[in-house]
Amino acid sequence: MHSSTLRPLALVAVIITTASAHIIMENPVPYGSPDSNPLLPDGSDFPCKQSEDVYKVVKQNIMPIGQPQTLSFIGQATHGGGSCQISLTTDKEPTKDSVWKVIESIEGGCPSNHPGNLGDDPAGRGTEKYNFSIPPMIPPGEYTLAWTWFNKIGNREMYMNCAPVTVTGGTQRLKRFTHHGRRHVHGAPASKRAEAMASLPDMFVANIGTGCATAESGTTLAIPKSNIGTNVKHGGDDTPVPPVGSCGQSAAAPATEPASAPPAQPAPQRAPSPAESPSSPSTSSSSSSSAPSSA
């Protein structure tokens, strides 16, 4: 009883100690000892801020499909806000090769719309809380959830905290939903749900040595259309700015239509050889190299 009581207190102590520079995800409850620092600029600790106990389960977060969930934070160094995403991977111990699928995007004002930091209390409150839910195309099972944040003010950085999640079946098992223009059934087989999940957008990644970066300090990231998804919240008062660098076609400015290729020219016809020609075998070689004249 005594040790079980001390464990949550120890977690809070770790959070307060490590959150002094920035903020961390409080809910869903993250793995291990949360690190409030951004990912390293070279991406060597991507994903989830790799460390010794990076995937130690403190609490398994249970999330029924379609039921309201809360994203909340501890800390007050919010750097003017920015843009955030919530993503899932089927890997319980994600690696650089893991595939992350976006279920919610928050463009602007995340985790706060305050022009600067809220304060200097590492255990302070005041950040926004966001409601989200597991979409119906996600098959029940165990996942890793990621919160990613691209700050508005300061160095161009990417923050990432991860949490263990168990997705369970929702209550409206036969509810129909539309995804990418197609009708689906909430209670569809897992294989169909997995196929629908695979069609969700990939998590946006930048500022970790990939050649893609967010724009200069003071700007809010405009999440690329191919990464933002359909569940989007908008906040903040400024106009979001697209990322820069080698972000892929989806992350850069819309590509112009390629110039139309000229119509293919018909291949020149080969003149029949003397052996093939129906005319007299005495036809000269010079005449055999020219196409027969039309009548």
What's the layout of helices and strands?
Blueprint lengths: L1 H17 L5 E4 L33 E4 L4 E6 L7 E8 L11 E7 L22 E3 L8 E11 L7 E10 L7 E4 L2 E4 L4 H9 L13 E2 L11 H4 L3 E3 L9 E2 L39 H4 L7
Briefly characterize the structure.
The chain is an alpha+beta fold and 295 residues long. 12% of the residues lie in helices and 23% in strands. It has 4 helices and 13 strands.
* Number of beta-strand segments: 13
Low-confidence stretches: 1-20, 249-265, 273-295
What is the terminal-to-terminal distance? 106 Å
H/E element string? HEEEEEEEEEEHEHEEH
> From the alpha-carbon coordinates, what is the Rg to the nearest angstrom?
28 Å
The mean pLDDT is 79
Q: If strands are numbered along the chain, what order do they take across the biggest sheet?
A: 2-8-7-4-5-12
Classify the helix fraction into a percent range.
10-25%
Question: Can you count the helices?
Answer: 4
Largest sheet: 6 strands, mixed
Question: Hey, roughly how much beta strand do the residues contain?
Answer: 15-25%
Structural class: alpha+beta
Give the overall shape, derived from the CA principal axes. globular
Overview of the structural elements:
With 295 residues, the protein is an alpha+beta fold. It has four helices and 13 strands. The strands form four sheets. The chain has a six-stranded mixed beta sheet with strand order 2-8-7-4-5-12, with no helix packed on it. It has a three-stranded antiparallel beta sheet with strand order 1-3-6, with no helix packed on it. A hairpin with a 2-residue loop joins strand 9 and strand 10. The longest helix is centred in the first third of the chain and has 17 residues. The protein is globular. It starts with a helix and ends in a 7-residue tail after the last helix. The relative contact order is 0.16. The N terminus and C terminus are likely disordered.
